[in-house]
Task: structure prediction
Amino acid sequence: MRDKGCIVSYKDGIASVIPLLSDTCINCNSPTCAKRGTPFLATNPHNLDLHPGDVVKIEARASIQLAQGIFSLLLPILGAVAGFFLAAPLATALGREPTEAMRAGGVLLMLILTTLIIFILSKTLLKLTKPQVTAIIHDYHPKIEGCLL
Result:
């Protein structure tokens, strides 16, 4: 995740940030042209001099992105593959002839099961980390209109 945001408030190393949501802002450093999103909290690990109105670069740690990719993409795919191969032994154990429909059902069942497990873990046990402010793109100056209009 690499995004731009506008600092709403900053206290004790935690910034409240409004994401700037616009595809046209990729190459633009103007703080006045983007739509606003829902505020969220971000840390300041580089101890940047942040002030309300600053436009900043927000990133998630690479390790968090890797874990997110593994759990949200790789785990359901592996579950679906496991469902395909486990359907035949399960059908045999139940005294039925394995069919392609059973294998397709095993794929869907395991895909749904792994997705539910990921959903439940993300809402209960996982400690989600805050994104980080990594750079100041545009300092807020009172004489210039900032992003806090």
Q: What stands out?
A: The chain has a mean pLDDT of 80. The two ends are 25 Å apart (CA to CA). Residues 62-93 form the longest helix (32 residues). DSSP finds two helices and six strands in the chain.
